[in-house]
Amino acid sequence: MSFVSIQVILDKNYEGKHVDIRGWVYRKRESKDTVFLIIRDATGTIQCTVKRGSSAWADAKKATIESSLTLSGTVRSDKRAPGEFEMSTDQLNIIGLAEVFPITKDQSKEFLRDVRHLWLRSQKMGTIMKIRSEVLKFIHEFFRKQSFIEVSPPMFISSACEGGSTLFGLKYFDKELYLTQSAQLHLEALIYSLEKVYCVAPSFRAEKSRTIRHLTEYWHVEAEQAFATIDDMMRLEENLVSHVCHSVAKQCRGELESLGVDAEKLAKINVPFKRITYDEAIKILQKKGLETNWGKDFGFDEERVLAKEFGDPVFVYAYPKQIKAFYCKTYKENPELAMSVDLIVPRIGELTTGGARVDDKDELIERLKEIGLKQEDYKWYIDIRRYGTVPHAGFGLGVERLLAWMLELESVMDTIPFPRTIRRYYP
Ligand code: 4AD
Ligand code: MG
User: β-strand 34-40 against 217-226: which pairing, if any?
Assistant: First the structure.
């Protein structure tokens, strides 16, 4: 038997043809002489009618919401049916009869997250997952077009990239290791042979905050480039973000519409993005009445105010070096400032962090000392600067934050199939 996808039936002229489909019962309604089943497969939904007296009748009556089945019937055009086609069913075979499905209308977000393994069947989640897959495709497409080489960094690591407070420790045989927070340090080692590298991999953060933008496990797009500057990174990042927005606007129209997202808004994300210094950002924040002093790191509140002020993505660069990581290069003319840049977007705040890296061995050793990190923990990282060091820069972007921003979702939790947070690790 060869089965036809539902979307193919809706797209092509199958009218009058006899077809076989398979899927799950999405909705069910009955009248005296007809059972109306809305059948869902990975591509769409179609209404299937079963008439009293047909050999499919008994099983159609028996089929419950989310039962899996195969159906055979004739496609008819019907303006009243969703999708404008329906199938007059003459054969129906239940594969797996479903017990009473626990998800009904108007359930709390918490409950839907408890039954995420089932809620993934909803149209909303299915649509988000399809867009997520496309976004990942566009990201890979972008880097490959720019001749970046995809690399696969390790997940077990022996020293921190982004500070000890968000490190997940784990027992590794008789040693204490960590889950990676960022592939950056390992990507840096790879530029000496490949020059332009990127990866899309999980990062782990022991993030105690419960916010709309923090997960303990998230997917991290990271790039590193030899001979590049902080300005090169800003250009690379804005081109990546606009490429993804434009591609989604063009190629995911139906999905965006079903989520109520305006494709035009994404199509209008244009480069260059605005660039302001940390100093300018502080002035704006103070003018807006926030209690922010020079030297303070920005939190969600500050970022949200900045994002609202610009309404579009905005780069903030040249931060005080003490609020940025040990690997950040500083400006020659002002060594108190780090060549570090955050991209801030409306509602979500920080979408990327990037910048230039310390490329001098002695300066790096000095920075490690200043911050109180042990030199021996970063031996190999120092080592790569001993042999033909080059200026270089890179950045990291959270896939879930990108999706939550683009799709106007309430939380990053809505963008990943099985979100992990301080309190959520089931299912
Ligand atoms: O700003 P972060 O911590 O920077 C780094 O890890 C650099 N080493 C990246 C690099 O230069 N290669 O993380 C980068 C991005 C953030 O801007 C944010 O989008 C995302 O990763 N991110 C998170 N996303 C979800 N949940 C979390 N807990 C996140 N922490 C960071
Ligand atoms: Mg950051």
Answer: unpaired
User: pLDDT tens-digit profile of 45-61?
Assistant: 999 999 999 999 999 99
CB of residue 401 inside a 6 A radius of ligand 1: yes
Structure token pair of residue 128: 């988000």
pLDDT at 83: 86
Q: Return the best residue to mutate from 184, 401, 423 for the ligand 1 pocket (most ligand atoms within 8 A of CB).
A: 401
Ligand number, closest to the Cα atom of 404: 1
Q: Is 410 left (phi over 0), alpha (psi -120 to 50) or beta?
A: alpha
Q: How many CB atoms lie within 10 A of CB 125?
A: 17
In order of their start, the domains of the chain are 6-96 (2.40.50.140), 114-415 (3.30.930.10)
Judge residue 259's burial from the number of C-beta atoms within 10 Å of its C-beta, 0-12 exposed, 13-18 middle, 19 or more buried. middle
> pLDDT confidence of 202, banded at 50, 70, 90?
very high
Nearest CA to ligand 1 atom 2: 353
In which residue are the tokens 């919401």 written?
Answer: 65
Query: What pLDDT was estimated at residue 93?
Result: 98
Q: How far apart are the C-alpha atoms of 73 and 157, rounded to whole Å? A: 57
Ligand 1 pocket check for 398: Cβ under 6 Å: yes
Mean pLDDT of the 165-180 span: 97
Ligand 1 center from residue 162 Cα (angstroms): 9
Residue 411 CB–ligand 1 contact under 6 Å: no
Closest CA to 227 of 416, 409, 389: 389
Q: What does pTM read for this prediction?
A: 0.97
For residue 425, report the phi and psi dihedrals to the nearest 5 degrees: -140, 15
Q: Is 340 in the pocket of ligand 1 (CB under 6 A)?
A: no
pLDDT, position 12: 79
Q: Is the CB of 319 under 6 A from ligand 1?
A: no
Q: Does 148 score more than 90 pLDDT?
A: yes
Residue 324 Cβ < 6 Å to ligand 1: no
User: Rounded CA gap, 49 and 65, in Å?
Assistant: 15
